[in-house]
Automatic annotation (TrEMBL):
Protein source organism: Vagococcus allomyrinae
Domain called RNA-binding S4: residue spans: 2-61
Entry-linked PANTHER family: PSEUDOURIDINE SYNTHASE FAMILY PROTEIN-RELATED, RNA-BINDING S4 DOMAIN-CONTAINING PROTEIN
Protein's name in the database: Pseudouridine synthase
Gene3D superfamilies linked: Alpha-L RNA-binding motif, Pseudouridine synthase I, catalytic domain, N-terminal subdomain, RNA-binding S4 domain
Family: Belongs to the pseudouridine synthase RsuA family.
Biological classification of the source: Bacteria, Bacillati, Bacillota, Bacilli, Lactobacillales
Keywords: Isomerase, RNA-binding
SUPFAM superfamilies: Alpha-L RNA-binding motif, Pseudouridine synthase
Cellular component GO terms, alphabetical: cytosol
Length: 238
């Protein structure tokens, strides 16, 4: 069961706020009866009409996408650039990304039409870990990256503590591969954190989201999440 205004918003009729206005103004019927009160809940079997026109309720869908570099984490772009939904050509539901990855960052991105699912995963208080692998300029020692484990200040605010591993180093090219695990989702966070300790990022990929991996996928490919996977990552978000 879902709140009526949420179902209207997810069906594409209007935003959540505009849907509430439609309800209070008497434009919505449920099973032939006009509804003007907020908070009423409906199921998939209920017949909902807006100004006499029936709406179609979508089933919730969940996808794991391997985002390539050079793709926008959005459903449209006013500059005509590629967006993530361009790759999910077989999906009819109105899906959108759960959070975002930068234009030049590749890796694991979730897409859904379930707003509650998206909110639970993106809110910092739920602390769902995200694992990134970064190529950085310079060759750090563990002591150089240790401040990340206490949090570093970016954009005037201190980050939550992160975990790191130095996966490899190249003393000739003066570069290194660093793994960083965070649970926040601030703008350009991984890049800014590593730059704050003196190691600018030249390439970045998200490898893990909670317990979800990119196994079996190539850049540009996607797959559906199983019900077990959805339940498991929601359990992490509790």
């Amino acid at each position: 069961m879902e709140r009526l205004q949420k179902v209207l918003a997810q069906s594409g009729i209007a935003s959540r706020r505009k849907s509430e206005e439609l309800i209070s103004a008497g434009h919505v019927k449920v099973n032939g009866k006009k509804v003007t009160e907020m908070g009423i809940k409906v199921s998939a079997s209920d017949k909902i009409e807006v100004n006499g026109v029936p709406i179609t309720q979508e089933d919730y869908v969940y996808y794991l996408f391997y985002k390539p570099r050079g793709v926008i984490s959005a459903v449209s772009d006013d500059k005509g650039r590629e967006v993530v939904t361009d790759y999910l050509v077989g999906v009819r539901e109105r899906i959108y990304p759960v959070g975002r990855l930068d234009y030049d960052t590749s890796g694991l991105l979730l897409l859904t039409n379930d707003g509650d699912f998206a909110n639970k995963l993106t809110h910092p208080k739920h602390e769902v870990n995200k694992t990134y692998v970064a190529k950085v300029m310079g060759v750090p020692f563990p002591k150089d990256l240790k401040p990340l484990t206490q949090g570093v200040k970016i954009d005037g605010r201190k980050t939550a503590p992160a975990a790191f591993k130095i996966l490899s180093t190249d003393n000739i090219k003066q570069t290194a591969i660093v793994e960083l695990v965070i649970h926040e989702g601030r703008n350009h966070q991984v890049k800014k954190m590593l730059e704050a300790v003196g190691f600018p990022v030249t390439k970045l990929k998200r490898e893990l989201y909670g317990n979800l991996t990119l196994d079996g996928l190539k850049p540009g490919q996607y797959r559906s999440l199983s019900r077990r996977e959805v339940n498991a990552i929601l359990e992490l978000a509790k």
